[in-house]
Specification:
Blueprint lengths: L2 H7 L3 E2 L5 E2 L13 E3 L2 E3 L19 E8 L2 E8 L10 E3 L5 E9 L2 E3 L4 E3 L2 E10 L2 E10 L1 H10 L6 E4 L1
Antiparallel strand pairs: 1-2, 3-4, 5-6, 7-8, 8-11, 9-10, 11-12, 12-13
Amino acid sequence: MNELEIIKSLWPKMGIDGKIIKKNRETSLIVPEITYFGQDGSLNNDSWAFKVGYAFRDALDIKYEERKINKEPYMVWTQGPHLNFKEGDMLHAKDGNRAVQVLSAKQMKWDSAKEEIYQGLVVYLEYVMSGDSLSKLKEHECTQMQFLQLLIDGQYDGSSVVKS
C-alpha cells in the first residue's frame, strides 16, 4: 500500500446501517520507519522528492502513543488520517532545484454535514533555486493530499496555478 492509500484507509466510512465508522489510528505509517539517534530524528523517507524531516510529524499526523497489551503499556508510532501542513512550512526538493512554501492552509477533517472527509487546502509558492537564492515561480492551490503527493513524487495531478 502506498502512502496516499494508507491515509485513505484511515478515513471514516459509512456502514451498512448508515452510521459512520471511524477507524482508530494505525501502526502502519506513511514513512518507512522513524528513528532517533542522539538529537537527530529521521522519518527515513529518502525516496521522497522533497526533504520532509522529523519536524513534520504533526503535519503528517504521526504521533508517538501509548498502547497496552495485557495491561502492559508500551509506546508505538501511529498514523492518523488528517494531514495538516501549515502557513510558513518551507520544504526543499532533494535535487536542490526547487522549494515550496505554504502561504495558507486548512487542515483535513471529517465533514459531518457532507458525511465525508474534507481534504483540506494548501496554497503554496513554488520557487526555483539557483545557488543560494530563490526565485518565485508560481503560486498553486491544492488539497492536503495533493500536497503530500507533491512532496513524495515531485508532482501531482490536477495542479491549479493561482498566480504567476
